[in-house]
Amino acid sequence: MVAVSPFDVLNSLFFTDILRVIILGFLGFYAIFTIIIVRQVDLMSRILITPVSPIVRAFSIFHAGVAIGLVVLMYGFLR
Amino acid sequence: MFPAFVKHPQNFKFQGQDADEEIVLVIRAHPITNLAWIIPAVFIFLIPFFVPNFIQFINLDFPPLSPNFSLALLIINFLLVLVITFEGFLNWYFNVNILTNERLIDVDFSNILLNNQDIAMLSDIQEVSPSRAGLLGLIFDLGDVVVQTAGARVGIDMIKVPRPYEVADMILEQAEKAKETP
């Protein structure tokens, strides 16, 4: 009889499927969160007009772009 | 670039500023308060470097995940660091108090879904209470300034701002000027 380690479950198909859903779900929520950040930074940049505001706004858009890109990338990567 | 205490700032405006309204002071929480998110961010950043050694140290027979999943988890870890850092910075940068020659404005960015503004006219200011407490307050000269206005109108709290007594002096000075002006 072959001894089965409890850790073998980590490499089982079932476990990797669950992990895939968790990772993609996390990245999906993260992408939505970054879009909310973009909106909020946009509103705050209108309230406080400083030389730094456009930089912060640009970074928030870049951040959202990276997050959305990662969802697509990981969807293909984890198949 | 990101000062917490600026007198008569140049290149700084706010929504609703009158043409003849002059900004006297812009104040944020003391930069040292940012340690509250910097320390967790650094800790989370370092986790991937320590986890393999820790697993080895406790002699856990843990089979490695496939490289794709390991990379995905590593990316999630760094995304967490990124969001803690960015959110922490935004929380600090957009939580600002503005003292003008007409009013005192408290812009709050409590979290990503809530922002709030309290505005007190200088002529309504009744009492300004600065306080400095704790070891950090003593070392870095930071504390709270509570501004109370007439009646049940808005009260403004400035939390962990640098030089609280100087801030209180400046508010009172501007309030006196505003009351003298007809």
Describe the structure.
The complex is a heterodimer of chains A (79) and B (182). Chain A is mostly helical. Chain A is 76% helix and 3% strand. Chain A has two helices and one strand, in the order H-E-H. Chain A has helices at 13-47, 53-77; one strand at residues 48-49. In chain A, helix 1 (13-47) packs antiparallel against helix 2. The longest helix of chain A is centred in the middle third of the chain and has 35 residues, at 13-47. Chain A is elongated. The model of chain A has no long low-confidence stretch (mean pLDDT 85). Chain B is α+β, with helices and mostly antiparallel strands. Chain B folds into two domains: 5-10 and 22-29 and 98-180, PH-domain like (Roll), CATH 2.30.29; 36-89. Chain B has helices at 35-57, 67-93, 134-140, 164-180; strands at residues 5-7, 13-14, 23-28, 96-100, 103-111, 114-121, 125-131, 142-149, 156-162. In chain B, the strands form two sheets. Chain B has a five-stranded antiparallel beta sheet. In chain B, a hairpin with a 2-residue loop joins strand 5 and strand 6. The longest helix of chain B has 27 residues, at 67-93. The chains are: A mainly alpha (79), B alpha+beta (182). The interface between A and B is medium-sized, with 36 and 34 residues. Strand 1 (48-49) of chain A pairs antiparallel with strand 2 (13-14) of chain B, so a sheet runs across the interface.
What is this structure's SSE topology?
The complex is a heterodimer of chains A (79) and B (182).
Chain A: H1 13-47, E1 48-49, H2 53-77
Chain B: E1 5-7, E2 13-14, E3 23-28, H1 35-57, H2 67-93, E4 96-100, E5 103-111, E6 114-121, E7 125-131, H3 134-140, E8 142-149, E9 156-162, H4 164-180
Antiparallel strand pairs in B: 1-3, 3-4, 4-5, 5-6, 7-8, 8-9
Helix pairs in contact in B: 1-2
